[in-house]
Fold this protein.
Amino acid sequence: MSWLSKLLPSKIRTSSEGKGANVPEGLWVSCPQCKGTLYKPELERNSEVCTKCAYHFYLNARARLSQFLDEGSGQELAADLHARDLLKFKDTKRYKDRLVHMQKKSGEKDALVVMAGQLKQKPIVVAVFEYAFIGGSMGAVVGEKFVQGVERAVQEKCPFVCVSASGGARMQEGLMSLFQMAKTSAALQSFHQQQLPYISILTNPTMGGVSASLSMLGDIIIAEPKALIGFAGPRVIEQTVREILPEGFQTSEFLLEHGHIDLIVDRREIRDRVASLLAKLLPR
Amino acid sequence: MQNFLDFERPIAELEAKIGELARMGDDVSVNISGELRRLQAKSRELTLQIFGNLSPWQVTQLARHPLRPHTLDYISRIFTDFDELHGDRHYTDDKAIVGGIAYLEQRPVMVIGHEKGRKTKEKVERNFGMPQPEGYRKALRLFELAERFKLPILTFIDTAGAYPGIAAEEHNQSEAIARNLYVLAGLKTPVICTVIGEGGSGGALALGVGDYVMMLQYSIYSVISPEGCASILWKSAEKAAEAAEALKINAENLFKYQLVDRVLPEPLGGAHRNVDEMAQHLKAELILQLDKVMEKPIDLLLTERYARLMHYGQSVFE
């Protein structure tokens, strides 16, 4: 912000920034890792991965699904499921209002999008967390959609894939959201008895109750590079142990080093890698 | 001297007066027993009144009360011939979780619970009841042992949460918790869970998946601690009381929302005022519920357990 804009009252300032009359908004973005300037349409074509340093930007759930599945094969499950504010939860904002606001902002009903479709002509069910929806937090709707996805995979006798991006359980639904950890884990327990593979893909960030349930239960666990993955948040740990955290703590690379995950795969290769893994696991 | 919480101050003052009067009674010839009885009745009435209308935050304080009975206090009063079993067979013995085989009356059972410890040294040894992955893996080993030898499992939940530490993450706290949820969901033996104090988040749930879930009246169970919730949503840990209210973390609220099956009443003033009475009551209830789940063929039990887990949240999106 320049000294001039700092002098301006905030009301004028916001209207003069960004949404300039004729300039298309955000055509260029700066990469937080290499600081390179990237042309947005090109970044989109590259799966939101920096063309210079391979930094993985946030990718919304629907874009991910359309890139992952065979073109036009995706059929959304439980698309209409949406949450009710059972607890009448209110912090600085009512949960009810927060839901409406998020639905408008993200265009999603809740933080998980599930589709049945095909991956290289083979049936598959894929669930993807939408991080832009209350931090991808898991409440009753996320839990239920996940379970319906698993059940669909059982019906179709096909693999199930989940791509996580979540801060954890959704506080605004209280204990109900904690219990979604048990619900999703139970569904996976039952799924595993079907001899069908469950592949868990962890993206930035995968924390708390989501990490400590469905994410860590994959037959194969893949992470995108440099994603933050863990149970407790780094700040909470730092405050508890009063120590500086080790370099690269709770990153995908750290997890691979410590034996928590199977593979780190670049987003642009995930579709091919998953297809090739599944080809080896599935009955011939 | 009993340990009084802030909201119990009127009771504390009255009790102090009663104590003083009782001491006077020893060396003064006047008969004060009438007055003493009157004050005692008043104290009881006051306690009933205060405890009849506790806020979720006040219940939180009771759930964390320094004198509140812990898992080992109940084990010694409810079970006989307890053999504590140690270690995860991989790395260490996490003392924040205790477990072992014991008799409940004539029936052998597996008992597993969080243990916060009582005196300072013990608290430190037990990491204040906050388990690391090794604790959950010990529990997992005991779950599977119980399954093999057809022992029903009784868990006691009492933790602020899984420990947020560097080593805990290095040893995959997430996986340890997730694995317990996963295994418990399909474990071929009955599981009865009781929240006896604090049910703190995933660290509590890792011992909390079963066929019947009870909570003691002044216990709490929550997705996040009120302090943690307040600092995230209100940007200030000072708002913990409001967060506790919003999260509806006390037993009676959770029962109302059908998230737990039963609330066990506590002695007047809380379990710590009469540990023996609480333990006897809990014991009777455990026997009763165990009889019920033991009657069921295991396949039916597992179907019902699954259905109950799948039911969580139905009320939110119906």
